[in-house]
Amino acid sequence: MLVFVRLILLALLIVFSLQKVQSQRTVDKIVATVSYGFSETSIITYSDILWQIALSPNSSQINNPEPEELNRALELLIEQRLLLLEAKKIPRDTPTEAEINSEIERIIRQFPSVLEFERRLRSVGFESIKDPNFQKIIEQRIIIEKYLDFRFRSFVIVTPEEEKRYYEEVFLPEFRQRNPNSVLPSFESVRQTINQILVESKVERNIEEFLEEAKSRADIQLFPKP
Q: Is the pTM value of this prediction over 0.70?
């Protein structure tokens, strides 16, 4: 779910193309600020960008990221901050230690091993999974996910007609292509899976629409130069 902020990121692409991470030391400078409505101003630092990259399983160049990867991380951070600012408007409970540990375990499972995950953490300055900055990131992710559940998932409706249409027009053709000699699963046997796919598709579309509208009204300031 990435919606490009093309114009405001162009300057960063140029600057970051001239900059490389010269050591494992995190350079902590302000890269952007995000304000939305009457909410507090959220600050994004270069450290935040490197942390975002380190926690992305598909990112391979942690200590020497390419300009495009830096911009993708920044774009995702801007979207996360907009969602977080919106989430903070709603009364909520602080994420529990159990919720934080569960989210950490979920993230670790996306990596080849625990050792690889810990190596990534140390490479961007985290001492361990108990590092306060790391714990704060996880806490914010949980707050955002709960907000998405409340704001979007809880209101999504998928009709039986939509489920049936997806089964006939999408699921069956794809299944036949992947498994030409297999017996076709019945509609009822895969209905729950289809429902989940359709729900997440609608949620993703609604979030994209929200972010597009939020970006048009937000005050996003970039500071590409040191």
A: yes
From CA 11, how far away is CA 30, in angstroms rounded? 15
Taking the C-alpha atoms of residue 3 and residue 12, their distance in angstroms, rounded to an integer, is 16
CATH number belonging to the domain at 6-154, selected among 2.40.10.340, 1.10.4030.10, 3.50.50.60, 3.30.420.110: 1.10.4030.10
Domain ranges of the chain: 6-154
What percent of the chain is helix, strand and coil (3-state, nearest 5)?
60, 5, 35
Contact 47, 28 (CB under 8 A): yes
What 3-state DSSP class applies to 34?
strand
For 138, residues 6+ apart whose C-beta sits below 8 A from its C-beta are 95, 100, 103, 104, 107
Q: What is the pLDDT of residues 122-167, one digit of tens each?
A: 999 999 999 999 999 999 999 999 999 999 999 999 999 999 999 9
Q: What's the whole-number average pLDDT of the chain? A: 86
- For the stretch 23-44, pLDDT in tens is 334 457 999 999 987 778 999 9
